[in-house]
Automatic annotation (TrEMBL):
Domain Gfo/Idh/MocA-like oxidoreductase N-terminal: 23-128
Source species taxonomy: Eukaryota, Fungi, Dikarya, Ascomycota, Pezizomycotina
Full protein name: D-xylose 1-dehydrogenase (NADP(+), D-xylono-1,5-lactone-forming)
Keywords: Oxidoreductase
Family as reported in the entry's similarity comment: Belongs to the Gfo/Idh/MocA family.
Keyword hit for Oxidoreductase: yes
Source organism superkingdom: Eukaryota
One Pfam family cited in the UniProt record for this chain: GFO_IDH_MocA
Domain GFO/IDH/MocA-like oxidoreductase: 192-266
E.C. code: 1.1.1.179
Reaction(s) the record says it catalyses: D-xylose + NADP(+) = D-xylono-1,5-lactone + NADPH + H(+)
């Protein structure tokens, strides 16, 4: 019942009254992800109103607005960013259009919630996230919600904002990581072979879609940037989409020689559930005596060590369902010859963390809040100048993410995703 109640509320959340100064969002495009990523989360946030949408096909936008309870349909993307009543813009357009419309929105003083991947390649990321528009204060007459500060730009890596993910990270012993592996797949029936995700001119490819999550988790776990992509194997789409990959496996080296591996596909087995997971394996470390345990518990000339393996199932949208498995292997071994083991045993535990309170963190949260709702909370806090949880995706972070993706493509015979032809004024 708890599961059903949580899922029901995530789809039909309580709707508190909106504040008089609620932020009004405009949406570029009639994307399938937007109802989950913004519309439903906005319902339970008292400071957010989804005000308007525009699409290339106005008839489609009109039907989309009606289906999602959006009060306004504007004629074009330009009409959205030029509307003085719109405070923030959500951009879920195809990857290849991200740079152009983010720059245009920032130039109009709008805050931007930008779907990942932020842009098409690292060079484009440098241009966007180091743009002077991000340091230029926005006048009150242009966007009062900016409070005379520069506009806020966030790459929407929503999974990072979840209580389960933050709790998982708190358990990582970074100096003693032995290996990290993460996998994510989507069943092949979900996307057609000519889906925009497989169009090179729109910066498509699996590493630009599902792969962004797996790459990002490695950077989060190691809290560092990869020094090299040691290997990257891809499976290409069929012609005429052969410049895009639909599956990839990559190995990255991080500082200190630590290794992380990733695997993802947009064409998994028809019958696979596709639950993404990440596993961190630690090196053995000394296991001290427990409270009340006598020194004689460890024989003379021996030491007791423990190595922990942590697996988080469904790290992308944990509040639907997830499970964190902890497996601690204890070994009593000779100090002078660690291969001689006197005793070995394993202790396992599983946990579920649906609120920050359960993670021991003092931050607002509800069990039904999906990752997107947590993300929206922090986006609004940043615009309002509130401290928030401290979880954020910095501009340098977004640049580094694109460098990692480029690093992987350079290990294949595919070209980097093409930059936008748009030239900022």
């Amino acid at each position: 019942m708890e599961f059903l109640n949580r899922v029901w509320k995530s789809q039909y959340p309580p709707e508190p009254p909106k504040t008089a100064d609620a932020l009004r969002f405009g949406v570029l495009g009639a994307a399938n992800i937007a109802p989950t990523a913004l519309f439903r989360p906005a319902k339970s946030h008292p400071e957010v109103i989804v005000q308007a949408v525009a699409a290339r096909d106005k008839a489609k936008a009109t039907a989309y607005a009606k289906a999602n309870g959006i009060p306004q349909v504007l004629d074009s993307y330009d009409a959205i960013i030029n509307d003085p009543t719109i405070d923030a813009v959500y951009i879920p357009l195809p990857n290849g259009l991200h740079y152009e419309w983010t720059i245009k929105a920032l130039a109009k003083g709008k805050h931007v919630l930008l779907e990942k991947p932020s842009v098409s390649n690292a060079a484009e990321a440098e241009l966007l996230f180091k743009s002077p528009l991000l340091t230029k204060p926005v006048p009150a007459e242009v966007n009062a919600s900016a409070n005379g500060k520069p506009p806020v730009l966030l790459e929407a890596f929503h999974y990072r904002f979840q209580p389960a993910w933050q709790y998982f990270l708190s358990l990582v012993d970074r100096p003693n990581i032995a290996s990290v592996h993460t996998e994510a797949l989507i069943p092949s029936w979900l996307f057609k072979k000519d889906d925009i995700r497989f169009r090179y001119e729109l910066a498509g490819g699996s590493m630009m879609d599902l792969g962004t999550y797996t790459f990002s988790t490695l950077r989060q776990v190691f809290a560092a940037e990869p020094e090299a992509c040691l290997d990257c194997k891809i499976t290409k789409c069929e012609p005429p989409f052969e410049l895009c990959d639909y599956a990839s496996e990559a190995t990255f080296q991080f500082p200190g020689g630590q290794i992380g591996t990733v695997k993802s596909t947009l064409r998994g087995s028809h019958f696979s559930l596709g639950i993404p997971w990440i596993r961190v394996t630690h090196k053995p470390v000394p296991a001290p005596l427990a409270a009340g345990e006598k020194p004689s518990a460890i024989p003379e000339g021996h030491e007791r060590v423990v190595s922990r393996q942590m697996t988080l199932h469904n790290f992308i949208v944990s509040n639907f369902w997830h499970r964190l498995d902890l497996e601690d292997e204890f070994v009593v071994r000779r100090i002078d010859d660690p291969t001689k083991v006197a005793k070995r045993w394993t202790v396992t535990e599983s946990k579920k963390i649906y609120t920050f309170k359960e993670a021991g963190i003092d931050q607002p949260s509800e069990p039904f809040w999906l990752s997107y709702r947590h993300q929206l909370e922090q986006f609004v806090d940043k615009i309002r100048g509130r401290e928030g949880s401290g979880v954020w995706v910095s501009h340098e972070d977004s640049i580094a993410q694109m460098r990692m993706i480029d690093m992987a493509y350079k290990k294949t015979d595919l070209p980097l995703r093409p930059s936008s032809k748009y030239q900022a004024e």
